[in-house]
């Protein structure tokens, strides 16, 4: 019995010494984060991780320890090191395995930089501005925008723009991906059902359970299993099998005759882009329209209306500076993906913003904090104010800290 007790004390002491001697332990942060990640996991499962980490940054500064093997940063130096060093930054963590489609790794869920770059070459030109601004793509967006306005005008009182903006986003992204095979969820009930299937669920916690407890996942009851998307899957598999897709569509590129991708990989990539496009665009536009509708922000709405009203019909979008400022401020205040983008520190360890961090440590930045922490660059950071982007003073600093789409070679492909 004494031997068992001594062995337990020895192992516990060894555990504590290792934790305390770790370079991560030298980062500022709550004392308990030196020993356990349970507090962080609690905030993940209660959908409060983003605000929890933000409050830690407000208390401890631009670098903070959030778990024994995980740290969060919120500085330009850290962003460049983690996400842009070597072109593509550090490798992604296994968290991104949760975003496989049909059990297949896509460009987004590929963890290492090399395989990601190989996949990115297959579709990067689809997201080049020259392709995005093709007449057929612009025409589809205009058609869906008119359908959205018609839906809003049909309501006599208040309008649930969350619903119709997610329809608009889904129709837009599927028309871009599949051209004439795109959805019309603003008009058709059967397509509306796909929007509901993709949007109205809370599967992140269920996915996290599978991530943290993979050995137990096969035994989970049905209520703990992420919701399936049979209608979406059927639609995507059908579209990915088109015999003669439109040349300038995403599926047209992926399904070309000399493509290295098979049908399942093409379908997985398409579903990934489809799922990514609906919530990010729908949520971002919903927040932006809500902010513009507030009486306190009427002056911003009037400035935007004046610019759009006075501009010639064929004015390029990048020649509308106040529209750009409004959209940018919406993405600053409510980035569609506000949470951390976790990465592994490479072999040998790295110095991040003056702090040495050993290899294998999980490091990240989160847009929500990057856009708020430095109030010298973003005064009154919690206030929606597009005018801040119209000021010449500090413009370079603001743009460098704009992190809504991440940055580097693994930044959002659809940012344009």
Explain briefly what this protein structure is:
The chain is mainly alpha-helical and 416 residues long.
Give structural notes:
This protein has 416 residues and is mainly alpha-helical. 49% of the residues lie in helices and 5% in strands. It is built from 17 helices and six strands. The protein has helices at 2-21, 38-45, 49-60, 76-84, 113-123, 129-132, 135-153, 161-178, 189-199, 204-212, 230-240, 250-254, 263-293, 298-310, 321-333, 367-370, 395-400; strands at 63-67, 70-73, 343-344, 350-352, 355-357, 362-365. A hairpin with a 2-residue loop joins strand 1 and strand 2 (70-73). Helix 7 runs antiparallel to helix 8, helix 8 (161-178) packs antiparallel against helix 13 and helix 13 (263-293) crosses helix 15 (321-333). The radius of gyration is 23 Å and the shape is globular. Mean pLDDT is 89; it is low at 13-17. Keywords: Signal. This is Cytochrome P450. Belongs to the cytochrome P450 family. Residues 1-19 form the signal peptide. It holds the Pfam family p450.
Q: Which secondary structure elements does this structure contain, and how are they paired or packed?
A:
Elements: H1 2-21, H2 38-45, H3 49-60, E1 63-67, E2 70-73, H4 76-84, H5 113-123, H6 129-132, H7 135-153, H8 161-178, H9 189-199, H10 204-212, H11 230-240, H12 250-254, H13 263-293, H14 298-310, H15 321-333, E3 343-344, E4 350-352, E5 355-357, E6 362-365, H16 367-370, H17 395-400
Parallel strand pairs: 2-6
Antiparallel strand pairs: 1-2, 3-6, 4-5
